[in-house]
Every structure is written in structure tokens, then in C-alpha cells.
Amino acid sequence: MKLFTVFPHLLPSIKATLLRFVRREGERRITVQSRDWLGELSPESLKSRDTRLLLAVEGKRLVGLFAVSDCGLGHAFLVVDRRYRGRGVGKALAARMCRLLPKLYVRVAIDNEPSLTLFRNLGFQPVKASIGPTGKPTLWFAFGQWTPEDLHVSAP
């Protein structure tokens, strides 16, 4: 498996493939708002220091995607092909994303135990609880140089 950062000039040629992958493998955990954001993501937006798109590829097959805007304060979603789950694809993408960004926030519904375990094991700190866009209780996790001010919460 290889990991790739999507460079802005490549985005237009692969965006349709990425959207199909997210719809097929996201299992209703990826919100419409996040899919719409990916669909509207422009090469100019991808030049932002706080926005990244990482892919995991096995041979010629896309097996994982981690998309982040505004260090996760905007959008952050991780999708792994169901046939490749449990093989470290999500962990590899998340670990690489942590090295690319100075800080990273993710929101995980509390019924998504695999993602909760993944981010805890990578050293993310739970920093906030809220009701997510799907109406489920959700934990915010932070990594790196995060600040409570980013989340409008009191310091832990």
C-alpha cells in the first residue's frame, strides 16, 4: 500500500472517483455536507496549508481516503474500503495526516468504536462533546498544537 498527497493540479481528474469511493464506502457515516464539500473542493482550496487530501492505494485500487479542511475544524473524514478494514489503512492515513498538519481535529460519533479506538491509539485527546450533524452524540478529538480557543471550550 502506498500513501499519496493529492496535489491541486490532480484534483479535477480524480474528483469523480473520490466522490464515488466516499459514497460507496462511507456507509452513511460521512455527512452530505462533507461529501458536498469534497465535491466543491477546488485546486485553489487544496493549496491552503490547513487543507489536505490523502489517498491510500493498493496497486491501482483506491483503498482509503482522509480529507481535512481547516485542520479538521471544517471537515475531517476518513474512509476505508470495507475489504481493507482492519489492515492498518486508516491508521496509516491518520498518522501521515498528523505529520502534515500542525494540529488536527476529528469528530467521531460515539457508536463508531473502530474510529474511537483508532484516534485514541494515535494519541488524540478527547476535547469536546457535542451532538454531531447526524444527531448522534459525538466526541471531538485533537492532536498536535490544538488550542481550546479553536473549539471555544475551556482548557482541560
UniProtKB/TrEMBL annotation:
Matches recorded under InterPro entries: Acyl_CoA_acyltransferase (IPR016181), GNAT_dom (IPR000182)
Record key words, sorted: Acyltransferase, Transferase
Pfam families in the cross-refs: Acetyltransf_1
EC top class named in words: transferase
Enzyme Commission number: 2.3.1.-
GO MF assignments: acyltransferase activity, transferring groups other than amino-acyl groups
Keyword Acyltransferase: yes
Name by which UniProt lists this protein: GNAT family N-acetyltransferase
Organism: Brevibacillus composti
Lineage of origin: Bacteria, Bacillati, Bacillota, Bacilli, Bacillales
